């Protein structure tokens, strides 16, 4: 606890409150007589979170296609263009962060047309829960020319289906797109000891 209080320049009270929030969000666990630990990662959690997220986002893209307007379409095109501009393969954290931010902005632009703040908040929660698994995937894909080209092709195909207002196709493409990281993450997890 003292390490965290000095690192983040916080008192014990605010730090305990923050840790309690992380426990409630299942990102941290309490270990009796030892304090707090990062919650272990598991294949079951990976599958559950990614399945929930893929189904949620597939539903949201269908709603967005039904409700989105021309400005919504223009924002998707702008975000897709910005994401496609990142072609350089660079092992730096800055490159990974930039690609992840643009990727997130592209996906957020797609679902923004759904018109429901409550559904978007639920989506955001699933996105946050998937983050620690996504970062495993991110390191394996963005640093690979082949994987980066594959993702670019998926994004292009998805954008075309959305602009054609083909809700069934766009929903299925979104669902499959969000499930593609699972085997890569499983493979990475099998090579690491992620639980204690």
TrEMBL record:
Cited InterPro entries: GntR_C (IPR011711), TF_FadR/GntR_C (IPR008920), WH-like_DNA-bd_sf (IPR036388), WH_DNA-bd_sf (IPR036390)
Listed SUPFAM superfamilies: GntR ligand-binding domain-like, Winged helix' DNA-binding domain
Pfam family, one: FCD
Domain GntR C-terminal: 48-180
Keywords: DNA-binding, Transcription, Transcription regulation
SMART domains given in the database record: FCD
Molecular function in Gene Ontology: DNA binding
PANTHER family to which the protein is assigned, alphabetical: HTH-TYPE TRANSCRIPTIONAL REPRESSOR GLAR, TRANSCRIPTIONAL REGULATOR, GNTR FAMILY
Protein name: CsiR, transcriptional repressor of CsiD
UniProt source species: Citrobacter freundii
């Amino acid at each position: 606890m003292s390490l965290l209080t000095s690192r983040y320049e916080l008192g014990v009270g605010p730090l305990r409150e923050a840790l309690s929030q992380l426990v409630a969000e299942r990102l941290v666990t309490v270990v009796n007589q030892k304090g707090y630990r990062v919650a272990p990662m598991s294949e079951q959690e990976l599958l559950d979170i990614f399945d929930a997220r893929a189904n949620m986002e597939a539903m949201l893209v269908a709603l967005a296609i039904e409700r989105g307007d021309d400005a919504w379409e223009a924002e998707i095109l702008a975000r897709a263009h910005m994401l496609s501009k990142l072609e350089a393969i660079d092992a730096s954290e800055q490159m990974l962060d930039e690609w992840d931010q643009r990727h997130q902005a592209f996906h957020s632009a797609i679902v923004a047309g759904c018109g429901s703040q409550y559904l978007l908040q639920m989506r955001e929660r699933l996105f946050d829960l998937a983050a620690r698994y996504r970062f495993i995937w991110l390191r394996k894909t963005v640093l690979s020319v082949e994987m980066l080209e594959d993702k670019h092709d998926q994004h292009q195909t998805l954008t075309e289906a959305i602009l054609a207002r083909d809700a069934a196709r766009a929903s299925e493409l979104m669902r499959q797109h969000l499930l593609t990281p699972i085997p890569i993450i499983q493979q990475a997890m099998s090579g690491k000891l992620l639980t204690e």
